[in-house]
Specification:
Blueprint lengths: L1 H30 L11 E8 L4 E11 L1 E6 L7 E4 L7 E8 L7 E8 L2 E3 L6 E4 L4
Antiparallel strand pairs: 1-2, 2-5, 3-4, 3-6, 6-7, 6-8
């Protein structure tokens, strides 16, 4: 009887371990904010800090990519090229601090990684510096 119980326990464990792995994998993928994002498409874009004369942006890519942003004073301008803190080295975590901006001014920004662009359906995001 003890041998049958041991065999049944081993069979249950061998059945449940793979199920647990696939369940965990499926649940974890739903929490991934990069789900459905191409390898070099910028995502989780944020303006981490905004001051009177600077803005610090952060963003991610699924794969290691060369990434940069373009900042302009109007949404139709191509804008000044701003390379991230990692320079032209590929990375998954990107950040860039743009300095010497005018206080209380609106700027427009598009993010690029590889050949992919991030904005609002092709339109630049807008961000305004502080007045103080």
């Amino acid at each position: 009887m003890n041998k049958k119980l041991s065999s049944l326990l081993i069979l249950c464990l061998l059945t449940l371990i793979p199920f647990g792995f696939f369940f965990y994998r499926d649940v974890a993928s739903k929490w991934d904010s990069a789900q459905g994002v191409d390898s070099c498409t910028p995502y989780d874009v944020s303006n981490e800090s905004i001051g009177k004369d600077y803005i610090k942006f952060t963003w991610k890519t699924k794969e290691e990519c060369i990434s940069y942003l373009r900042l302009s004073k109007t949404p139709s301008e191509v804008g000044e090229l701003v390379v991230g803190d990692t320079g032209l080295s590929p990375s998954r975590q990107h950040s860039s601090e743009v300095k010497n901006l005018r206080p209380n001014s609106t700027y427009y920004v598009l993010f690029y990684a590889g050949e992919n662009e991030y904005g609002l359906e092709g339109q630049p995001l807008s961000v305004t510096t502080r007045n103080f």
